[in-house]
Design goal:
The chain is mainly beta. It has a domain at 33-89 and 103-142: Immunoglobulin-like (Sandwich), CATH 2.60.40.790. The protein is 12% helix and 31% strand. It contains one helix and eight strands, in the order H-E-E-E-E-E-E-E-E. It is elongated. The N and C termini lie far apart (53 Å). Residues 2-8 and 33-41 have low confidence and may be disordered.
C-alpha cells in the first residue's frame, strides 16, 4: 500500500505511485486496448484513491457500470487485489458507427502491497454509487496512543 503524502512531505513511495499512474496514462493514450498475453480480453486499470487516517487506510476504487457481483476482492500474502470485469452492453446494430468510444470494458485488476500494520482479518468493503470503498483497519499496536508522562522531582512552592 502506498501511503498518502501529508502536505510538504517528500516520500519516494508517492513518487513511484505518481510515476506508475503517469506511465499507465501514457500507455492508455498510445495503446487504448492493451491486452493480456493469455487471452484477448481487454485489461484496464480503474482509478483509485488511497488515504491514511489514524485508525485505518482507505481505498476507494471507481467502477462505474460494474455490478458488485462482478468484482472480487482478496488478500493473499500481504497483497490486496481488486479484480473483475465490466461487461459490454448488448451489441449495437451492424450498421452502427461509433464516433467516440472512450468507455472501458473487459477485465480489470489492481493490486497493492499492504503494510504490516494492517489487520487483514478485519478488512471491510462496501459498494456504493459505482465506487468500491475498502477499509483496512490498523492493528492495535499501530494505532496512535497517548503516553502519560510521570512527573519526578521538580520544584515545589
Amino acid at each position: 500500500m502506498l501511503p498518502v503524502l501529508r502536505s510538504g512531505t517528500f516520500s519516494p513511495l508517492n513518487e513511484l505511485f505518481t510515476l506508475r499512474r503517469e506511465v499507465d496514462q501514457l500507455f492508455d493514450r498510445f495503446f487504448p486496448w492493451r491486452t493480456t498475453t493469455t487471452d484477448t480480453a481487454v485489461v484496464w486499470t480503474p482509478p483509485v484513491t488511497v488515504r491514511e487516517e489514524s485508525e485505518a487506510l482507505y481505498v476507494e476504487c471507481e467502477l462505474p457500470g460494474v455490478s458488485p457481483e462482478d468484482v472480487q476482492l482478496s488478500v493473499e500474502n500481504g497483497v490486496l487485489t481488486i479484480a473483475g470485469e465490466k461487461k459490454a452492453p448488448a451489441a449495437a446494430g451492424q450498421d452502427a458507427v461509433y464516433h467516440v468510444l472512450e468507455r472501458r470494458y473487459g477485465r480489470f485488476e489492481r493490486s497493492f502491497n499492504l503494510p504490516a500494520n494492517v489487520d487483514t482479518e478485519k478488512i471491510r468493503a462496501r459498494y456504493e454509487n459505482g465506487v468500491l470503498h475498502i477499509m483496512l483497519p490498523k492493528t492495535e499496536a499501530a494505532k496512535p496512543r497517548r503516553i502519560p508522562i510521570e512527573a519526578v522531582g521538580g520544584s515545589e512552592k
